[in-house]
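Worked example (supplementary).
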Amino acid sequence: MARSRLTPERESELYATVIDLLGEVGYDGLTMDAIAARTRSSKATLYRQWGSKPELVAQSLRHHKPVRIAEIDTGTLRGDFHEMIRRSDDCRMEKDSAMMRGLAHAVSENPELLQAMRALLIEPEMTGLDLLLRRAVARGEVDAGNPALGLVPHMMIGALVARPLIEDLPVDQAYLTTYVDAVVLPALGAP
Amino acid sequence: MARSRLTPERESELYATVIDLLGEVGYDGLTMDAIAARTRSSKATLYRQWGSKPELVAQSLRHHKPVRIAEIDTGTLRGDFHEMIRRSDDCRMEKDSAMMRGLAHAVSENPELLQAMRALLIEPEMTGLDLLLRRAVARGEVDAGNPALGLVPHMMIGALVARPLIEDLPVDQAYLTTYVDAVVLPALGAP
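After joint prediction of all chains, the assembly is encoded as:
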């Protein structure tokens, strides 16, 4: 018997909806019912195709591809960071910030979800950042022994998470550019 | 008719339990039932004394006094930061980090809770940090126009939130000291 599978377009739409809902209601508040209602699909389809909420969330994260950092190569570290920010539109950054806050607690309770988030979201970003930083070291812009080299993801997560908490303002390109210029590059001793 | 009020000791215990539970189950998962059960008090007492969950959480945050940063004055910015970290024991920092992750999403949905968290937790820390930074500027350790001066809380929140997400390790004194020396002081151009 043929099983009704979603088309790739419908699947993309569904993943995007999961990311939106994650930002709106958080992981605990995210229900299969709400996903089914907003995407106008049946819960049976969701369970048949993804098995469970953690798996569906993990797949949505995987689909929610971050900006491909590794492709960026402007010739300077400052240029690379600015290009990375330029490629992320403001709306997308706000969603990422909301999604990260939505997941912040859930991942500490769900080892599988933390694993998925780390494998799908954090590690590719870190690999991309790492490549970008290694090129800066090779060009002599950053000292190979600089202890801030391993802390760039921490600084960037701080930028994303802290802005709405402290200033009640969304993360946008202007703010992130200021943050990179004022914090990340000076910590790295980069021009 | 005399109403049974909690003793200050019982009240402190209760606030500490709320902070613990917040780190364990997150804001959405925190129920008045669970608080009543763990503190062996009646739900009626909780509602009579605090009215609602957001108010009880806000009061618990208020009671959960951060290290009094403003009192610290070692004569150098590096010394002040190190002293600040020395006064926060590892267990406390892990709890703060868990609590922050537990609240991260909830505050974006509850303007009152965000208000409370900002007034009780973020603003005193920022005032304390600000004092410490202004003294460093007065001593000539940091340039008054350094754009990183306004971003120190963002860097510190990044340090607290990112460590468990990225490395699956708790925040501790050694890590925070490394972070301050490698990121915060260089961004400020401080010795």
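Two points are worth noting when inspecting this output. Chain B has two domains: 8-62, 67-188. Chain B has a mean pLDDT of 86.
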